[in-house]
């Protein structure tokens, strides 16, 4: 499944909507997606959203849509 992960680049600040970024990744579960991001970045994860159906189709039309892969 594809997940959209909303995050802040640093854990030092409180989350602010204006500085929230996102990435897309493929994982088996939401928990696995969180572990992937936490193990490979220093990001402060705000929210993880599963994408499927029309929501996934909409996100894939975004020119910035690109799946993030972490080297294991």
UniProtKB/TrEMBL annotation:
Organism of origin: Lactiplantibacillus modestisalitolerans
Free-text function comment from the UniProt entry: A non-essential component of RNA polymerase (RNAP).
Keywords noted in UniProt: DNA-directed RNA polymerase, Nucleotidyltransferase, Transcription, Transferase
InterPro entries associated with the record: RpoY (IPR009907)
Family: Belongs to the RNA polymerase subunit epsilon family.
Entry-linked HAMAP family: RNApol_bact_RpoY
EC top class named in words: transferase
A GO cellular-component term linked to this record: DNA-directed RNA polymerase complex
Keyword Transferase set for record: yes
A Pfam family: RpoY
Name of encoding gene: rpoY
Record's subunit section: RNAP is composed of a core of 2 alpha, a beta and a beta' subunit. The core is associated with a delta subunit, and at least one of epsilon or omega. When a sigma factor is associated with the core the holoenzyme is formed, which can initiate transcription.
Catalysis performed (reactions): RNA(n) + a ribonucleoside 5'-triphosphate = RNA(n+1) + diphosphate
Molecular functions (GO terms): DNA-directed RNA polymerase activity
Enzyme nomenclature, EC number: 2.7.7.6
Protein name per its UniProtKB record: DNA-directed RNA polymerase subunit epsilon
